[in-house]
């Protein structure tokens, strides 16, 4: 896997700043499909002996008034409750449908594309023997749940799910695929394999923000408070700014190794994909240092996102992240404590920027 050091070093190169306009707020397109803070308990799949088994498819800153902060928090809570209620049975279908076919699609991690009964498709990241493979799948679930708690729709939906290992293995079209599955996955004592179920995004378009041509654009948008941003570019600029903060808070070291940012072709929304490099018990110190250095250069942030981040206390965080398939907390106390420490750090960075440039100039994205 390509390293991320080169990106962080070159991100500080001087850019020819674009001349556009920063003012209008960002309106996220609605998420395709329901979302949930705490997905329903994993259903047990019972393959029929007479049919082929199926698969799962996979604003205030500290200077703002308490009234505006309260309003923003209330709006976020209302949106979250609405999204949770709207989930309905769609998520249950992903959790209960049996697998029909499976194939490996991962390169540096073990990932399966699984088709389920009824035509649903998922990416399934199972527990595996690869380095930290017994827990990396939790990063996908935690990132999605945290994003929901913060009012973000950029992280693809991810749910904890299980398959009967022997049933899933039978759905591979080749003996090679079935043998690789048997070799790499970690099977639980009950004969099931656990992991993250991520509904397939039909119109998935990779966006190479780490490449020089893109880096020149977004560093200009975010790091020069005087640069103008054209109205069509505002949603993307806002999402990149938010992604930089989100990745530092979650300690995701792997964003810039290539192929970990995309766009939903149907909505144009920026997608923060492949989050299994986040929420480590001991995240790479060097990567965190580089991420924080980059954030010190960022001059523009989302008002609503910063307010939601500020309101995320320990109780809300624990409630949002919830539990894994076995009923145990998804993340350890250490990981949650470190996350809160990083949150406090990045808020100090943003507050210092506000003190220097003013609230309106710093929190110029909606």
Concise summary:
The protein is an alpha+beta fold and 366 residues long. Helices cover 41% and strands 11% of the residues. It has a 5-stranded antiparallel sheet, with helices on both faces.
Summarize the structure in words.
It is built from 13 helices and eight strands. The chain is an alpha+beta fold. It folds into two domains: 5-12 and 204-362; 66-199, no CATH class. The strands form two sheets. A five-stranded antiparallel beta sheet has the order 1-2-3-5-4, sandwiched between helices. The chain has a three-stranded antiparallel beta sheet with strand order 6-7-8. Strand 7 (261-264) and strand 8 (270-272) form a beta hairpin. The longest helix has 25 residues, at 333-357.
Work out the strand percent: 5-15%
Number of strands: 8
Strand order of the largest sheet: 1-2-3-5-4
Elements, N to C (H/E): HHHEEEHEHHEEHHEEHHHHH
Provide keyphrases for this structure.
three-stranded antiparallel β-sheet, 366 residues, alpha+beta
Question: What topology emerges from the helices and strands here?
Answer:
Layout: H1 5-10, H2 66-86, H3 90-96, E1 99-104, E2 112-116, E3 121-126, H4 137-149, E4 159-164, H5 165-170, H6 175-184, E5 192-199, E6 204-206, H7 212-223, H8 234-250, E7 261-264, E8 270-272, H9 285-297, H10 303-311, H11 314-321, H12 333-357, H13 359-362
Antiparallel strand pairs: 1-2, 2-3, 3-5, 4-5, 6-7, 7-8
Helix pairs in contact: 2-10, 4-11, 8-9, 8-12
């Amino acid at each position: 896997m390509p390293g991320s050091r080169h990106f962080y070093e070159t991100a500080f190169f001087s850019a020819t700043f674009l001349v556009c306009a920063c003012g209008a707020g960002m309106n996220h397109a609605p998420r395709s499909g329901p979302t949930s803070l705490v997905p329903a308990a994993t259903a047990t799949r019972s393959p029929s002996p007479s049919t082929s088994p199926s698969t799962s498819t996979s604003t205030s800153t500290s200077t703002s008034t308490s009234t505006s902060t309260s309003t923003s928090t209330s709006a976020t809570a209302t949106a979250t409750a609405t999204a949770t209620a709207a989930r309905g049975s769609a998520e249950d279908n992903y959790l209960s449908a049996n697998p029909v076919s499976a194939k490996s699609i991962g390169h540096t991690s073990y990932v399966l594309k699984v088709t389920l009964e009824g035509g649903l498709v998922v990416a399934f990241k199972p527990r595996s023997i690869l380095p930290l493979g017994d827990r990396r799948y939790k990063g996908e679930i935690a990132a999605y749940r945290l994003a929901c708690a913060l009012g973000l729709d950029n992280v693809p939906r991810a749910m904890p799910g299980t398959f009967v290992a022997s049933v899933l293995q039978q759905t591979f079209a080749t003996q090679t695929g079935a043998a690789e599955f048997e070799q790499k996955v970690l099977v639980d004592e009950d004969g099931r394999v656990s992991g993250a179920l991520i509904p397939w995004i039909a119109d998935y378009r990779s966006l190479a923000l780490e490449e020089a041509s893109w880096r020149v654009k977004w560093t200009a948008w975010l790091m020069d408070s005087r640069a103008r941003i054209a109205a069509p570019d505002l949603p993307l600029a806002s999402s990149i700014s938010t992604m930089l903060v989100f990745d530092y808070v979650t300690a995701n070291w792997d964003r810039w190794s290539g192929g970990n940012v995309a766009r939903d072709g149907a909505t144009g929304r920026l997608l923060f994909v492949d989050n299994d490099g986040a929420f480590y018990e001991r995240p790479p110190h060097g990567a965190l240092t580089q991420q924080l250095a980059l954030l010190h250069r960022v001059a523009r942030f989302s008002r609503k996102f910063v307010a939601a981040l500020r309101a995320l206390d320990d109780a809300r965080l624990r409630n949002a992240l919830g539990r894994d398939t076995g009923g145990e907390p998804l993340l350890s106390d250490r990981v949650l404590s470190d996350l809160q420490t990083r949150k406090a750090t990045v808020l100090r960075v943003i507050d210092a920027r506000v003190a220097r440039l003013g609230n309106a100039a710093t929190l110029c994205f909606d």
